[in-house]
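Chain A, query sequence.
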Amino acid sequence: MKKFNKAVEQHLGRLEQYVPVVERVHGEHHPEFHDVRKLFDEINTKIKKTDIEKPNLDNELAKLREITANYTVPGDVCESYEAVYNMLKEVDKAYQG
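Chain A, predicted structure.
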């Protein structure tokens, strides 16, 4: 649980900044990122609304892994896109661990 909280603390703020920008820049050529944004927003809301240390994110994270092919970064994207996938992967890994 501490791993998850640390990952959230480390990455949530940057993800809040990066995800909308990446969606705006890459959404046209990578429509799956619209789903990534939607799932991130759901995850973010659950994390912020819950008083428990680790909300149930099993469903959202499973969908995220499916949509992103386990966070595989497309070859034609910027560093911010890659950073989003890497941060989401770390949060997911900490959640599982």
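The chain has one domain: 2-96. The longest helix spans residues 2-26.
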